[in-house]
Every structure is written in C-alpha cells, then in structure tokens.
Amino acid sequence: MSASIKDLLIDRGEKLYRAPRKLIQFTKNPEADALLNDLDRYPHAFVLGCVMDRQIRAERAWIIPHTFSKKLGGFKFATLAQLTLQDVQNLMTKPEPLHRFSDDMSRNFYEATRRIGDRYEGNAARIWTDQPSSAEAVFRFLQFRGVGPKIATMATNILAREFKVPFADHYSIDISADVHVRRVFGRLGLAEPDAGIEEIVYRARALNPTFPGLLDLPTWEIGRSWCHSRNPTCQSCYMENVCPTAGKIT
C-alpha cells in the first residue's frame, strides 16, 4: 500500500473534521433537516433519527421524526413522552407505513422515548454534554433498543465531526463500513475486495488508531461521488493518481 493513500484520506478527514459547523442535510427536506440539526431544542430528534436508520434508505429513515412532528403538531419531548406504544404504531403505519419494519421500529421509537425520559430526564443531549469518552458515548447509544455498533459509532461520529461536540477522546469512534466504504477500501488496496465489516473496522483502527472514524466520511464521499459499483468516474476523484484500480473498473 502506498503511504500516500493513507495520508490523503487522513488529510481529507481532518479537513472535514476541522470545517465550520453547517446544516447537515440528512433528508434534503429543509424542515426535516432543521429539526434534526436543532440539538438545543430537539436533541431527541437526532437520537430518534439514529434509531430509525436501519435497512431502508437513510433519507427515508431520518425523515420519520419530522413526519411524526407534522402529525402531532410539534416535536416537544413532553408530547412524545405521553405517547403509548399503540399511539406510536398508529403514527408509524397510518395512512401508510413509514418504515420497512414498522412494527419493530415502532417499539424501538417508543422504547427510545422511554429511555430518554427515564435515563436522561427528558433531555437526550445528556448523552453527550458531559464530554464523555468516545467509548462511553458509543455505549450510551448501544443501550437503545435496535441500535448496534454501526449506528452507535455513526451517531457519535456525526456528533464529533458535524456538530463539533467535544469528547474526551476519539479512540472508540469506528468507521461505519457501509457498501460505499467497503468498496473504496477494497479498490484502494486498504483491504481485500471481499473484506467483511469487521475487517474494515479493524483496518481503519490500524490506519488511524486515535480516531478510526476519521476515515469514514472521506471513503464514503469517494464511493458515493465517484467510485461507483459500475462505471466509476476515476478522472474526477482526487485519489486517481494513487489508486491501484483507477481506470481498471468498468
């Protein structure tokens, strides 16, 4: 592996990390994104968006809090705290299902509101405002029903990188090895083309031990923008000169 591949990715990751905070386009719906970005008044919207982000397109999952807000006439936590599981199921399924797994995600949503109310006194920002270690922050997200390591580390990474939330360290913020990230790791020669998620996670830890998740957005960005599964536009990618497979994939 050329050292410049690692250096270019880390350099890009650090630039993205140091960039000023700006509105994150989770859904590309202005009202929905405004809700999800408002950590001061609606930190629970971000947390619930994370809980919903499973096995459907991210934009469809992240817009669920906004859809609930429209149906409820607002998204204050006090309103959510009054909902029964049946209420949540009705909101999730009528007039049409909001998620591929509406029943399971209804329970996840409901249990998340209960946890925020009971454990964090109705203020989801308490998950991160005490400047916890990255391991503690990931652990807190893992305690929500339906949230696994990928979503827990993704949530913590977004808070650190995009929302500029301070943590005591970044050691436990892993890369979220989705299809784009895995493809780019394979084509750049950072891992075998058929490497599994755990292999990608540990490879990122080896490449940048103090902040493995720093490699997440640069590799996702490459995969989403240029390094497509078919007909990649290598000439537009800043890794073209160092990528061992540039111009070889059709």
Description:
- The protein has 250 residues and is mainly alpha-helical.
- The chain folds into two domains: 3-19 and 172-236, Endonuclease Iii, domain 2 (Orthogonal Bundle); 30-127, no CATH class.
- It has 13 helices and no strands.
- It has helices at residues 3-18, 30-37, 43-52, 58-62, 64-72, 77-81, 85-93, 102-119, 134-142, 149-161, 179-187, 197-207, 216-225.
- Helix 1 packs across helix 13 (216-225), helix 3 (43-52) packs antiparallel against helix 8 (102-119) and helix 9 packs across helix 10 (149-161).
- The longest helix has 18 residues, at 102-119.
- The two termini are 22 Å apart.
Instruction: Return the domain count.
Output: 2
Computed Rg: 19 Å
Q: How many strands, which pairing sense, and closed or not: the largest β-sheet? A: none
Mean pLDDT: 95
Oligomer, anyone?
A: single chain
Strand element count: 0
Q: What's the order of the H and E elements? A: HHHHHHHHHHHHH
How large a portion of the residues is in β-strands, by DSSP E? under 5%
* Helix-strand makeup class: mainly alpha
Overall geometry: globular
Unreliable stretches (pLDDT < 50, length at least 5) are none
- First CA to last CA: what distance? 22 Å
**Count of alpha and pi helical runs:** 13
Helix content, binned percent: 40-55%
Topology of helices and strands:
Elements: H1 3-18, H2 30-37, H3 43-52, H4 58-62, H5 64-72, H6 77-81, H7 85-93, H8 102-119, H9 134-142, H10 149-161, H11 179-187, H12 197-207, H13 216-225
Helix pairs in contact: 1-13, 3-8, 7-8, 9-10, 11-13
